[in-house]
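Sample 1 of the test manifest.
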Amino acid sequence: MKLRVWTLLKTYTVLVYIFMFAPIAVVLVLAFNSSQFGGFPIEGFSFRWFVKLSENEAIIRALRTSIILGACTAVIATTLGILAALALVRYTFRGKDLITTVLIAPVLVPETVLAVGLLIFMRWLHVPRSFGLLLLGHSIIALPFVVLVVQARLTGIRRDYEEAARSLGANPLQTFFAVTFPLMLPAVFAGALFAFTISFDNITATIFWRPSGMETVPTQIFGMLRNSVSPEINALGFVMICITVGVPLMAGALARYYMRNTK
Amino acid sequence: MARVELVDIQKSYGAVKAVRNANIVFGDASFTTLLGPSGCGKTTILRMISGLADPSSGDILIGGNRVNDVPIHKRNLGLVFQNYALFPHRTIGENIAFGLKYRGVPKSDVTRKVRDALDIVRLPGVEDRYPQQLSGGQQQRIALARAIVIEPDVLLLDEPLSALDANLREDMRVELKAIQDRIGVTTIFVTHDQSEALAMSDSIVVMSAGRVEQIGNPDEVYNTPASEFVASFLGASNLLPARVLGRDAQGVALETAEFGTTVVPASRAATLGDASRGQLMVRAEKLFLSDGPASPDSTQAVIEAVDYQGQLARYFLRVGDTQLQAINMISGRPFAAGGTVNLTLAADECSALPAKDA
């Protein structure tokens, strides 16, 4: 009896995972299908859609935009996130709870609402839609994740490291760069990656904020899908999966390598 | 090297008074211990001297200069923490050299000074290792080396031995004291461990609930406690309500229900004043058990329990309704629980304290 329940549970779990990952697997497989149409059956193995992709200027432009946008978002959100986390963990001040809520709020507010809100605000200020606005918006969306990750790490760094550094003659700024920052580096790294992938993946808010004529990879795919399912999209999907999965994995491996060398 | 003075130091956190009116002088090159239970304010005092906390009122003087407004990194102090606080991302060499970097010491001197500091703590040649590769005791020595290499005016130690296991703690105690003697730095040591305090200190500051209870050398604090708190916190003692029968230049006669009349030396009755009631304090090791014949100044007691400790035994006794403790050397075999013995006390080594409600 007990065995049957376990078997049932296992089967169910496997089915859920298949449901989740099968579409991804389909995209990965179909990216190499030589068929004219972006679907089954598979006719042969080919890189032709990747070649076609690399010749598609619109997509290359979109990819470049996405990467620049993601990198800038990572830099801004991480910098602000570190400063916010430092303030929240290391200092007491009035309104701390309120500020924490405000910082985390973008996670809770539906993205559409956030997108429309920022847009209306910018219109009121007579600021036209631009790359800058897009970057600002993405940074707002990514900031809470950075704050949460860095905050968690900072809470775990005992204060006496910093106090020891101070007692040895380092001023507050020197203490930060000599002790606090190196100790929270893994979280900073993780936060930056989070910010990059969140920006790279984002479509809902991006549609509202991008200036006309500017495409990111997700909006480009979305645009292409409106006409037909081109096999190029499968290839592009393959590339996106490689970036969003590959970058964190690579960073993790780098971090481990770095840690081993210092220990 | 410098002497440290606290003048009317108060520290409150909201309504809580962590330190009340502390006036303490830490002598130049002396080893002073702040002793008390947790929450007594000893760590708060250490943090105020180091600059990690600001006093609510009062002045802190180091070497005669008021340092209240001097930030911690300019006070030139060596600070050693309970959890060592060695920087995990730096090698031992880098950890020790950390403070030298901010003092503009030339590179060639840094290497030499780091080596010398490691020699002092008897851990030569570990410069290239990382803190987590060393044992707790070794890490604590590195923390000490890091604090003394900058030649601080004052060395502050915050329960540095409490994270070590018992045997190591006793070794480190001897070694720490020897190092302090050698470099002669004014040292302030915080602990809740009375044996550490008694063994290492030139002077002990006993604290309770934010108040300084007594300042004195280990002998004074142990043998002539200034208050009931000090008497009960250090060592094991028996406190018995007593009536003052009379006093002269030599001593004070106290009458207790358990031991009749006991004459305590005047030097051990200073806090009693001219009160008519007080307490007789008898150290557990000054109360002697015997199974010989009763004498005029002995009292009969029943042994309720025996705590055997090898060369010593701790007896829990009852005289009438009063519970007493005695610690005696064992000659032959310890007295058995349940038996009756005769108790005598060493009157010259008892003290008189004010009555409980006074």
